[in-house]
Amino acid sequence: MSDISSRGYANADKLVSTAWVAQHLNDSDVRIIESNEDPLLYPSGHIPGAVEVDWVKDLNDPLRRDYLGRAGFEALASRIGITPETTVVFYGDKSNWWATYALWVFELFNHKKAKIMDGGRLKWVEEGRELTREKPSVSPTTYSAPERDDSQIRAFRDGVLQHIGEGGQLVDVRSPAEFSGEKLHMEGYPQEGAVRGGHIPGASSCPWSRAANEDGTFKSAADLRAIYQEELGLDPGAPTIAYCRIGERSSHTWFVLTNLLGFGDVRNYDGSWTEWGNSVGLPIEK
Amino acid sequence: MAELPPKLREYLDDFGFISSREERIDYLIDISDEFKAVPASIATQPYDEAHRVIGCESEAFVWAIDRPDGTLDFYFDVLNPQGLSAMALSAILDQACSGAPLDQVAAVNGEVVFTFFGRDISMGKGRGLTELINAVVYQAKRRLHSG
């Protein structure tokens, strides 16, 4: 894959290469963060100096279906040794699903100095770069965070309902079988299913993986434009909502539309199909 | 109901004593280090798709080879280099089920995945690992019913 700077991204500095990360391992202004689905991966070997942010125990409220609040985020930031000035670089498994998800949650707290390592964990490993099992020694910091702001990049059920009433554009990033309603859950995730199959009325189908190359890196801006703007007909200037099953795959698409293509108003509906497909009275299209 | 294979019982007891997430993860990683991929004398890539564990995103494969005493030797491979959980479970199943009486292997329930990996494992991982166990159990049941 070509250099990130030559791929024509709207906001290319949100993406860094494995080589860039390798050069900044000892940069005190940079914190490398691994976020995976599989909790065994980080302890089995991670980028030297990287800390772990776990999507279950660190980002989600243990009781309510919601993200951590301000105090929780401040505690997390302190534990991983960052300040509002620290540049955080996320990477992880599954082509950076959970890395983009974590970045999106950090941006809910206005931590905008956040980047993704292109290609994620697998690319780092396949390039034969160093991994360690040694956990870094982190000095806790004091981080004063704002209240979580759900108004800009997060969508809720009622907002989605209003959005479709206004003819707003939506991207369903699940598999075609989930979109059509043939399957009530993603392949391999039967417990995250729904009572009803189908999609939110008016949504375009575009599985998240179309934005990624086989090695997990992101496609060029031209290739992405061909998919999202030419093929799907999405208008970069119009409000857009992305959704999937619980909001993790759609955070990948949110990152692509917002940062790589420069769409001006993209929100991730994290309630996604596990909320919409199980709710009473919401309209569904097949 | 048949007993479980003794080595599996041992593992279940070990994991039953684990109280912290970190301890569980460290133990699973240690076990995953014992994973041995199927030898070339049994199978070489590209593998026959009939041996693929459907629903396992780590691309696990299972082979069951008959022993003269009527039990089975199990062999595994996990093609996804990030499939550590599948490797750990494969190592457990190899140690516990290879050479174990078929009725004991057939009595293994996929729910043991949650004893090993905990309840907070993601849905996808839980399903894939359960299918790995099911693939082993299926082979034992097939031999039992054909006998």
Structural domain tally of chain A: 2
Number of strands of chain B: 2
Biggest β-sheet of chain B, characterized? 2 strands, antiparallel
Secondary structural class of chain B: mainly alpha
Give helix and strand order of chain B, one letter per element, not per position: HHEEHHHH
CATH class of chain B: Alpha Beta
Return Rg of chain B in Å. Answer: 15 Å
Biggest β-sheet: strands ordered side by side in the sheet of chain B:
1-2
Measured between the Cα atoms of the first and last residue of chain B, the distance is 18 Å
Principal-axis shape of chain B: globular
Largest interface: A-B, 20 and 25 residues
CATH topology of the largest domain in chain A: Oxidized Rhodanese, domain 1
Q: What is the number of independent domains of chain B?
A: 1
Question: What's the architecture of chain B in CATH terms?
Answer: Alpha-Beta Complex
What are the secondary-structure elements of chain A, in order, as H or E?
Answer: EHEHEHEHEHEHEHEHEHEH
Number of helices of chain A: 10
Notes on the structure:
The complex is a heterodimer of chains A (about 290) and B (about 150). Chain A has about 290 residues and is an alpha/beta fold. Chain A has two domains: about 5-125, Rhodanese-like domain (Oxidized Rhodanese, domain 1, 3-Layer(aba) Sandwich); about 155-275, 3-Layer(aba) Sandwich (Oxidized Rhodanese, domain 1). Chain A contains ten helices and ten strands. In chain A, strands 1-5-4-2-3 form a five-stranded parallel β-sheet. In chain A, helix 4 packs across helix 9. Chain A is globular. Chain B is mainly alpha-helical and about 150 residues long. Chain B has one domain (about 5-145): Sufe protein. Chain: A (Alpha-Beta Complex). Chain B has a two-stranded antiparallel sheet with strand order 1-2. Chain B is globular, with a radius of gyration of 15 Å. Chain B starts with 5 loop residues before the first helix and ends with a helix. The mean pLDDT of chain B is about 95.
